[in-house]
Amino acid sequence: xxxxxxxxxxxxxxxxxxxxxxxxxxxxxxxxxxxxxxxxxxxxxxxxxxxxxxxxxxxxxxxxxxxxxxxxxxxxxxxxxxxxxxxxxxxxxxxxxxxxxxxxxxxxxxxxxxxxxxxxxxxxxxxxxxxxxxxxxxxxxxxxxxxxxxxxxxxxxxxxxxxxxxxxxxxxxxxxxxxxxxxxxxxxxxxxxxxxxxxxxxxxxxxxxxxxxxxxxxxxxxxxxxxxxxxxxxxxxxxxxxxxxxxxxxxxxxxxxxxxxxxxxxxxxxxxxxxxxxxxxxxxxxxxxxxxxxxxxxxxxxxxxxxxxxxx
Amino acid sequence: xxxxxxxxxxxxxxxxxxxxxxxxxxxxxxxxxxxxxxxxxxxxxxxxxxxxxxxxxxxxxxxxxxxxxxxxxxxxxxxxxxxxxxxxxxxxxxxxxxxxxxxxxxxxxxxxxxxxxxxxxxxxxxxxxxxxxxxxxxxxxxxxxxxxxxxxxxxxxxxxxxxxxxxxxxxxxxxxxxxxxxxxxxxxxxxxxxxxxxxxxxxxxxxxxxxxxxxxxxxxxxxxxxxxxxxxxxxxxxxxxxxxxxxxxxxxxxxxxxxxxxxxxxxxxxxxxxxxxxxxxxxxxxxxxxxxxxxxxxxxxxxxxxxxxxxxxxxxxxxxxxxxxxxxxxxxxxxxxxxxxxxxxxxxxxxxxxxxxxxxxxxxxxxxxxxxxxxxxxxxxxxxxxxxxxxxxxxxxxxxxxxxxxxxxxxxxxxxxxxxxxxxxxxxxxxxxxxxxxxxxxxxxxxxxxxxxxxxxxxxxxxxxxxxxxxxxxxxxxxxxxxxxxxxxxxxxxxxxxxxxxxxxxxxxxxxxxxxxxxxxxxxxxxxxxxxxxxxxxxxxxxxxxxxxxxxxxxxxxxxxxxxxxxxxxxxxxxxxxxxxxxxxxxxxxxxxxxxxxxxxxxxxxxxxxxxxxxxxx
Lengths: 312, 618
What we know:
- The structure holds two protein chains of two kinds.
- By secondary structure, chain A is mainly alpha-helical.
- Chain A is built from eleven helices and two strands, in the order αααααααααααββ.
- A two-stranded antiparallel ribbon of chain A has the order 1-2.
- In chain A, strand 1 and strand 2 form a beta hairpin.
- In chain A, helix 6 packs across helix 9.
- Mean pLDDT of chain A is about 85; it is low at about 1-5.
- Chain B contains 20 helices and 22 strands.
- Chain B has an eight-stranded mixed beta sheet with strand order 6-7-8-3-9-10-12-11, with helices on both faces. Chain B has a six-stranded mixed beta sheet with strand order 18-19-20-15-21-22, sandwiched between helices.
- The radius of gyration of chain B is 26 Å and the shape is globular.
- The interface between A and B is large, with 34 and 54 residues.
């Protein structure tokens, strides 16, 4: 027990010491905090009107848009719903890809797993955004707006396949290790092997799936909204982009409006990138940078020709 | 021989090591000095982690960050290799000194033809096409390779041929010294024997020097002229082969020599060396072998012994080097005398009228079909094998790699399906592959794997590994009982004190300790049959004997043991019966002494000839 505790402390230390992980976590937290602030308080009401298309000033830090709304307020207000969809997709993708990857890898070669493989490859070929468009057009015909729940679901249903392939190949190689064969030989049940011996080593991969799932969710949502094919119930960064495109803000050089719509996405993407590099280093110690000691010390080494001094 | 003019290379006070990720330093080689003479084979022998590979890399000035040579000189013709510029080194490498790193044969570029690979090296040294081709042909034939090899890709060659290619490449420019780092690891015994034999013939003919790094003391005793025994970053004893063999004067050498089985001088008991080598993150003043030494004195802890000169060539780093070790008494832990006290009844009683046969295999076949284009080729991995495993008897299955030993083990263990043939356990038919994955079969047949580094789950403790089979097979009534059984099992396999090991993780154990845990896990089920697939081939010599002694002792538990190996020397030590397998067929079987001292089949004779034995000369 004590040893396990000590082990977890050293892991925490590695995580906080790793600057990539630290920066990544900080950026993700910043994005979430922006979103939470926006859902409680914004500098101006999102519906308040000011003069149109004003460049940034002390009054409006990110200027105003073509409708006279404060861009910073809009950005803050729209961040949280966007992140919710992202994290929702990330969590679901991580869950699905882990379960399917574990089963597909452990039972590789058996009929059930061949079926899983075929489904995985099929799903791999369907782009999430397209499914989202199809689903939402159905909803539009039925005259119902698409809830974020449906969005998350349809993006996740086709988003797990890539991760599942990755996890499957990892599980496949783990399943052929002798300690797994030994567990089978002593009569260990399959589910015990899967959950106590195969799941722990692939958890970092699951986490990576969550990160990329999140990014995939946010980008797909924004893309779909940008195309204007998603009749959403509330505004998010994608709807903001949709307005930018209908008003051709990039032609009239209203860069502040575009900036407002993409800042949270840039922060999220950069944070995920840093986290991913950091986790790679954490999982694979070979990638860790070896620091040579700053202060040299002298060590005395007794040898046959007397004591020699070396500095390390 | 030790004339100053004969010195080719001398290493003085070499100290090297590695920076650790946490900012510390790990010493691999500390203050090593020795000479390599002209026209000799010098072997540096030591167990894994003793610094022998680092030593070889440092000599070749090829140790890269995070490794670093801290001090010392490597003098070659009066010049220090460690102080040379890159250009000077390039002109010396291959022409004067060649280096064959470990696993070089597996590092050949798969898309470059052998001839092109060898030419590339020559082009670097300014040789033209014609000249290069002549040199390549000459060296290939020297290594007994057909000239067609130049147009082949590495994947078309066997492991032994690839190793021959690598060795031929190292000899291309007739260097004065070739440094070989574990040149035969991973090769079949017979292939290993033939390569080293040819190498020695070539060395004697051309008169260059070889510095060879190996973990295999018996093999080096056959191959080398002089031997340096390395332990924890130091050369503890150096001397000619015969001096070390007949008269070892360092306790480590003495114990190592008495830990290896030999066919020529059969030993009743093999010694093992308890404990592990020290981790050299700091340098203690005393002798590095102190913790494991049976003959230690109080002064050994305070002061590092210096070399005692025993003859012109023989030096030992021990205060007691002038004493005769065999007259000193050894503590029982070096004999691995294991107490099996309360374990007499570990296995279920044999069923009536089975004349001791626990498992019997009849006419076993395993056929793999491979497609070569549209043609289907059948490959017989196991071709009609029949044998019985009897309780209280260790049956050895011996053969080189690729002859079907492991396939038989896997079929019996229930990991693989056979193509045809039947398997009976205590008279009951378990021929159907699915019947061998039932709890009934698994409670009777267990297996110990070859690689101790992958047979334990890195994320679970030693205790967990022993607990699981006890719980699954309902061997215990309550938590206290469970704890007691785990402790008993660890004691049985010689992990003492067991409490110390309970909460350890596999990465905190040495290879030998892991293998003991692996054996304890198999025994927890209380099986009738134990399959041990090359259980000691990946272990260091100092712990190998310990595992062999454990297996030997397990026979007394009325266990039928199938010991699978390529090493006839270990067979002669522990087994009662032996079966020799060749191309999937058992070509010879019978009593161990009968087969080893009076072999009938040609393959058995070749195996016996090839087995490393310190008392043999190559």
